[in-house]
Task: inverse folding
């Protein structure tokens, strides 16, 4: 992918291009994390890190970045760290997965919130976040109208409640921020418990506020969030109903 691109790429972009070209040899829910780990373990002699999470081929580096005595990348273009080491990932505290501005009408609420589907990258394995734990924001257009929390594994049902309560006609999008990480098989990890360091709590609150509110004077959180943000996947039941409605309209027009 890097040879074809002829420019440095973030590991999440490498993963997306692998998916787009049908080169992923096995399934998995976290292809970006897999690529980051693979880079760290197997490709250190061939790749160099040029920025946080961004890599290029050693052969593409300018001559001045190479160590004259070894032919290896000079300091500042060292072999990449692991995705979990902190070198390539923004400090997000306990924020391990989140989705931004998901559409209400892409969820099949007939299942009572038992399915909230998203994927790390396009064409990646869908993940069900219905049992995520964390906080959520409801929007009317781009205006925040409600902030809530789910302290038990029931984010989906909690959102479903808002399709039947006083807020039902007031929101059309939602964002969510979860503390349960996603494993490569698509399962959600444990809920953090115990005594927490103040630094972790502060980092979590900062990440939530910056991502949730998008204040104009804050710098963009950066590519480190690519490994924890998940894009919405339309529920298959919703797609099936839309196809049926479209067919009914066509047949009604023919008659």
Result:
């Amino acid at each position: 992918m890097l040879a074809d691109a002829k420019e440095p790429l973030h590991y999440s972009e490498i993963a997306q291009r692998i998916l787009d070209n049908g080169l992923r040899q096995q399934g998995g829910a976290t292809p970006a994390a897999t690529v980051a780990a693979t880079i760290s373990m197997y490709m250190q002699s061939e790749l160099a890190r040029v920025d946080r999470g961004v890599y290029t081929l050693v052969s593409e580096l300018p001559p001045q970045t190479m160590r004259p005595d070894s032919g290896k990348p000079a300091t500042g273009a060292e072999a990449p760290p692991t995705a979990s080491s902190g070198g390539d990932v923004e400090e997000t505290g306990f924020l391990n997965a989140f989705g931004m501005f998901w559409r209400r009408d892409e969820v099949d609420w007939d299942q009572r919130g038992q399915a909230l589907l998203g994927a790390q990258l396009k064409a990646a394995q869908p993940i069900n976040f219905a049992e995520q734990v964390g906080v959520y924001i409801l929007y009317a257009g781009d205006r925040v109208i409600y902030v809530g929390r789910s302290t038990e594994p029931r984010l989906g049902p909690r959102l479903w409640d808002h399709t039947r309560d006083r807020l039902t006609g007031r929101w059309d999008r939602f964002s969510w921020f979860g503390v349960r990480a996603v494993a490569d098989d698509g399962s959600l990890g444990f809920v953090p418990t115990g005594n927490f360091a103040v630094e972790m709590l502060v980092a979590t609150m900062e990440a939530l506020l910056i991502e949730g509110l998008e204040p104009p004077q804050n710098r963009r959180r950066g590519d480190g969030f690519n490994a924890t943000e998940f894009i919405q996947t339309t529920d298959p039941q919703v797609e099936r109903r839309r196809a049926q409605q479209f067919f009914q309209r066509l047949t009604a027009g023919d008659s």
User: Anything to note?
Assistant: The longest helix spans residues 236-254. The first strand starts at residue 9 and ends at 10. Residues 67-71, 74-87 have pLDDT under 50 and may be disordered. Residues 113 and 129 are 10 Å apart (CA to CA).
